[in-house]
Design a protein that fits this description.
By secondary structure, the chain is mostly helical. The chain contains eight helices and two strands. 64% of the residues lie in helices and 3% in strands. α2 packs antiparallel against α8. The longest helix has 36 residues.
């Protein structure tokens, strides 16, 4: 049967998606308020700009803490989603085309196969019906198969009856290991980008407060003394 939409979701991932959508909307609103407040010297808008920046910064810190302390749960939920996707992967299913293409892209870019390894693909219904004489093209370690990029490729004529994943010309590394290795290799860059974003947000908060104080001082000096 085709993969039901409910099987492709989890509470944690849904919460993360809603947080990202909320932060994106808040960022757009924040930019508009900041520009309008700075140009027209409106203190209340600059105050809202400061508040939005502070909320975004707090949300980012909270999201980081959730990812850190709930890493095991998130990994388990993501594992279930990916395994369901692999089990029901069907190149002829246009309804799941975008999701399947995204997974093919991951396997090609990371040079991996399956979640923990190529054996995960032995649960795929189409491959079972083909007696495992086909394999996912995006898993292939052959350049000619990677040109196809998605769907299933046929084994050589030598395997014309039955086969197993050990007969496939695919990468041995599972994608979870590939992602973890990538994060380890690029941890410095990731932390640097996060730190840079936080510093920019802090500078924005400081500048908005400074503008508010300047506007307040100018308003005070314009008040006629009795």
């Amino acid at each position: 049967s085709l993969l039901a939409p409910a099987e492709m979701s989890s509470p944690s991932l849904k919460t993360g998606a809603y947080i990202l959508i909320g932060v994106g909307a808040l960022t757009m609103l924040m930019g508009f308020l900041g520009c309008l407040g700075a140009v027209n010297e409106i203190r209340c808008l600059l105050g809202l700009y400061f508040t939005c920046l502070m909320m975004i910064l707090i949300t980012q810190v909270a999201a980081g803490l959730v990812i850190y302390f709930q890493a095991g749960k998130l990994k388990e939920e993501l594992s279930n989603i990916v395994r369901s996707l692999i089990k029901n992967y069907d190149p002829s299913n246009d309804d799941e085309r975008n999701l399947q293409d995204a997974w093919d892209y991951v396997q090609r870019q990371i040079a991996c196969c399956g979640w923990t390894g190529a054996e995960d693909w032995e649960s795929n219904e189409i491959l079972i019906n083909k007696s495992m004489t086909e394999y996912p093209c995006s898993c292939s370690n052959s350049s000619k198969d990677l040109e196809t990029g998605s769907g299933f490729c046929n084994l050589d004529d030598a395997f014309n009856s039955t086969a197993t994943y050990t007969d496939w010309p695919v990468h041995e590394q599972g994608c979870i290991d590939g992602v973890e290795n990538w994060l380890k290799d690029n941890l410095g860059i990731v932390l640097g980008v996060c730190t840079g974003v936080a510093v920019i947000e802090l500078l924005g908060m400081i500048l908005s407060i400074s503008l508010c104080k300047n506007i307040h001082s100018e308003d005070y000096t314009k008040v006629p003394k009795s």
